[in-house]
């Protein structure tokens, strides 16, 4: 069989060869056509790009609103100077040790200095007690300083404290959740579980 | 002719009814083309779907300057060539396998008439590279230079692939004729 005959016969047989098309081909074609239209950039019909644009816009608006509300909810964290810390329990300790203050001043008295110089202990026993008190007062001061940092505190606004001191009555103070501490230089608080010691900087 | 124009206008407007009419009218013919360039019916179905997606998306670019059927055929052939290029990485292995088989002497084919299905089976069994060149040269009527440009191969490669395809096809047809002979 010559080349020409083969080619002619093949061409005659296959040029208009039209086999039956499976049903599944139509469904697949419709699906591909929909996908093609959906992914194609077109201004006249709904497609992926409109959806992406809407999603991006929605996300931007949500993020903006979220930031706005977050900053509105936590103004106090950024305004530390308007608040003062009043360690109430330590104040009580300090008031109990009020005598020690006088005692510490007493240590500078002539009597006490003369006692340091060498007089009999019995003649100045009161002053020696006062000297002991002055040592405990210094220790109390240290405890007080540490307590301001580490213990739960009662916070009142400065004006309220001043007014209260004028009136002689302490105002009702707001109790801050002891499990939340403000981080230095950060704008949001850190949650510290109650069963764990607060971290000291 | 009037019917075709009506279908085209409907497809340009994006009417589903016109798209379905176009599919019914030409899907068989285009499926036949896709079958010639692919290995099996499943692959041919995939190519056919892509062909129709291209037709619907680009039908507004068809102007009445030529046969509409010719335009559709050209889209089917181009899509099949694109599919062939996608699967090029598998072509080398097939060619090596084929070289081993080509050592056999081609058999003479008796003057037998072969059905379209038999011809299609023989062509589908050709290695992908041979099949593509054979289809483009023998059935679509392209020159070797055009085939070389389309497939990105040398003119001489196109010629040699056509020659091997012919030998391969003769062997396949001879095998079929052997089966047919006792029936005569």
List the secondary-structure elements of chain B in sequence, H or E: HHHHHHHHH
Task: Give the rounded overall mean pLDDT of chain A.
Answer: 68
**Which structural class should the secondary elements of chain B be placed in?**
mainly alpha
Using only C-alpha atoms, the radius of gyration of chain B works out to 19 Å
Q: How many separate helices of chain B?
A: 9
Low-confidence runs of chain B (pLDDT<50, min 5 residues)?
A: none
Poorly predicted parts of chain A: 100-124
Distance between the termini of chain A: 97 Å
Mean pLDDT of chain B: 85
What does this structure look like?
The complex is a heterodimer of chains A (201) and B (184). Chain A is built from 8 helices and 5 strands; from the N terminus they run αααβααααβαβββ. Chain A has helices spanning 3-14, 23-39, 48-73, 88-96, 98-106, 110-117, 125-150, 158-167, and strands at residues 83-86, 154-157, 174-175, 180-182, 189-191. Chain B is an all-alpha fold and 184 residues long. Chain B has helices at 2-12, 16-37, 41-58, 68-86, 91-101, 116-125, 128-139, 144-151, 155-180. The longest helix of chain B is centred in the last third of the chain and has 26 residues, at 155-180. Chain B starts with a helix and ends with a helix. The mean pLDDT of chain B is 85. Classes of the chains: A mainly alpha (201), B mainly alpha (184). Chain A binds chain B through residues 1, 3, 6-7, 9-11, 13-22, 24-26, 28-29, 32-33, 36, 40, and chain B through 19, 23, 27-29, 31-32, 35-36, 41, 45-46, 48-50, 52-53, 56-57, 108-111, 113-116, 119-120, 123, 138-139, 166, 169-170, 173.
